[in-house]
Write a structure and sequence with these properties.
This protein is α/β, with parallel strands linked by helices and 163 residues long. It has one domain: Rossmann fold (3-Layer(aba) Sandwich). The chain has five helices and five strands, in the order αβαβαβαββα. The protein has a five-stranded parallel β-sheet with strand order 3-2-1-4-5, sandwiched between helices. Helix 2 links the parallel strand 1 and strand 2. The longest helix is centred in the first third of the chain and has 22 residues. The termini are far apart. The relative contact order is 0.20.
Amino acid sequence: MSFWKKFQRKKERLIDQLEKKGAADPAANRLLFLDFDGVFLSASNDPRVLMGNIMTFVQEYDFHLVIASSWRTHPETAYKTLKKSGCTAVIEGKTPFLSGPRYREIADYLMKHPFSEFFILDDLDMGPLRTHAVRTELIIGFNQEKLEEAQRKMQALLQRKER
């Protein structure tokens, strides 16, 4: 079997495993993994406007936030930055520090905590978790277009789960 096919199977198993875990605890919170730079902190948009888009998404789907950003190394600064930008969501935690891509840190967090649904906003590729993510652009952030993309993806995930 080729490397690519092995990788694809491993990726599919991870998503299946996480979706089954989420389905097992429907009363648990929905988790939104949030990066800072390139999502609500961008070079060309006001952080309060971008955070407003995030809060629209959070409120629409009743998410709790998990910080999945390098900012998690300085929690007080991270929380102050969130609040200053207009974040009113419940902050449930932060992802662990692991070597490798960020999606591994998110998967590790998901395996250790209860959740019913999850979604990711990040400017990095989320590899096998990209079906549950919107990838933003560093300079633009989570603008209206990305909000609409996230809403479509989340709606599709919920519809798929109902089947």
